[in-house]
Design a protein that fits this description.
By secondary structure, the chain is α+β, with helices and mostly antiparallel strands. 34% of the residues lie in helices and 16% in strands. The protein has 2 domains: 89 residues; 169 residues, Alpha-Beta Complex (Aminoglycoside 3'-phosphotransferase, Chain: A, domain 2). The longest helix has 17 residues. It is globular and about 60 Å long.
Length: 282
């Protein structure tokens, strides 16, 4: 009988000491980090190296890996047509005492800074064309991976539960089409002015339209930007599956635990009324 997975202790790498972690990765990859370039997030930390590369270190609990695998960077490296940083190699290790897995991936540096949504309306037509081409190529790909938006595997049951808990009038939540998705398409994971899509740890099969819905949902604080995303990804977002994905995203914004200070809330409420009505009308 397989022993149950232990539960990892919550860790926030924005405040957790990381010197020992960085030193371990330096020894493993035989690089030196420029600590002045370090970017720290809740479960990742990254920095430029003396090889003029970028190393990203990620922490993930054991129970967030089961079924998904731990090879996102290697698999994403095969998506050669999509504009993403070239991957050079990495190292993986487990920490059984803390019930977590670590991996460090070395890749080429990003071609620009992550896009600030406040300036995204100034992105060029070439940028949007590159985004559209990359998402279209990705959706036509094939993978055995399953997407894990917010580190949780996306399933029909999860979609149904999330939507009907907030929008009980939507009776049919069946997803018709599944396709590969990045599954974390936020403005923080694309660069400008030259387009590049990075941080592929959650990618895999997902309901068609999930990526478009994620970028649209992360634009709701700026109505003009949300409208721009709808125009660019019209085919995805106006499909039945795309509308369900938009509700899936918004269920966390307008649900019973809605944050009244969330700048996306007002437009999310208006948009979900439209989406529910359209889905009910068939």
């Amino acid at each position: 009988m397989t022993a149950p997975l232990s539960i990892a202790t919550p860790v926030d790498l924005r405040v957790q000491p990381v010197d020992t972690l960085l030193e371990r990765v330096e020894r493993s990859l035989q690089v030196r980090f420029d600590r002045d370039t370090m970017v720290r997030k809740r479960r990742t930390v990254g920095a430029r190296t003396d090889r003029d590369t970028w190393v990203r270190i990620e922490r993930r609990p054991f129970n967030k890996i089961e079924g998904q695998g731990w090879n996102s960077a290697e698999c994403a490296a095969l998506l050669s047509v999509i504009r993403t940083p070239a991957w050079f190699g990495g190292v993986v290790w487990s920490d059984t005492a803390e019930a977590m897995m670590w991996r460090a991936d070395e890749s080429e540096p990003l071609p620009g800074d992550p896009v600030n949504p406040r300036t995204a309306l100034a992105l060029s037509g070439e940028w949007w064309a590159a985004l559209n081409a990359s998402l279209d190529v990705l959706a036509a790909h094939h993978t055995t991976r399953v997407a894990t938006p917010d580190t949780v595997t996306v399933t029909q049951a999860r979609v149904t539960q999330s939507i009907q808990a907030v929008f009980p009038g939507v009776l049919d939540t069946t997803i018709r089409n599944w396709a590969p998705a990045h599954a974390d398409l936020t403005w923080a994971n694309v660069t400008g002015p030259q387009f590049c899509l990075f941080d592929w740890e959650d990618w895999g099969m997902a309901p068609l339209g999930l990526d478009a819905a994620w970028l649209w949902g992360n634009s709701l604080a700026i109505p003009e930007l949300a409208a721009q995303v709808r125009r660019e990804r019209h085919r995805d977002l106006e499909s039945r599956d795309g509308k369900l994905m938009a509700l899936f995203f918004c269920s966390a914004i307008v649900g019973p635990h809605a944050d009244p200070d969330d700048s996306r809330l007002w437009l999310a409420q208006m948009e979900t009324e439209r989406l529910v009505a359209e889905l009910q009308a068939g």
